[in-house]
Here is the input.
Amino acid sequence: MELSRIEKLLEKYDNATTSLQEEQELKDFFSQKEIPAHLVSYQAMFGYFQENSNEQFTKTILLSKRKAPHWKWLSVAAAAALLISVYTFTNNELSSKEREQAQLAMQQTKDAFLLLSKNLNKGSNLVYSGLQEFDNATSKVFK
Here is the structure.
């Protein structure tokens, strides 16, 4: 067989574009005793494929006789839990006074976070300016 044809078939094989007939040609070629040195690794691979194609699994497979979980009952339980939670949350509507208190608490929390944010920004600006001064001083010293 022509070596250039085999190399083209190997390139097609590496790109997974060979037909079954072309793969059979490669198997036949690599089943020979004398192979060019640069193709020896392919000979080992095709030899492995040929050798393992004759193997058969002979052990028995034990199948579990355990019953499958009762999916129907699990789905019914999940649906019931969902309905109960929806019913509970819709029945617990807040009164207008409770709603006003909740909104007030939310506004106070927002204000507290805004104040905290402003103070953190002031502190980070001070740290940044201090680092700038330190950087300037070290650059003057090490020049």
Summary: Residues 3-52 form one domain. The two ends are 74 Å apart (CA to CA).
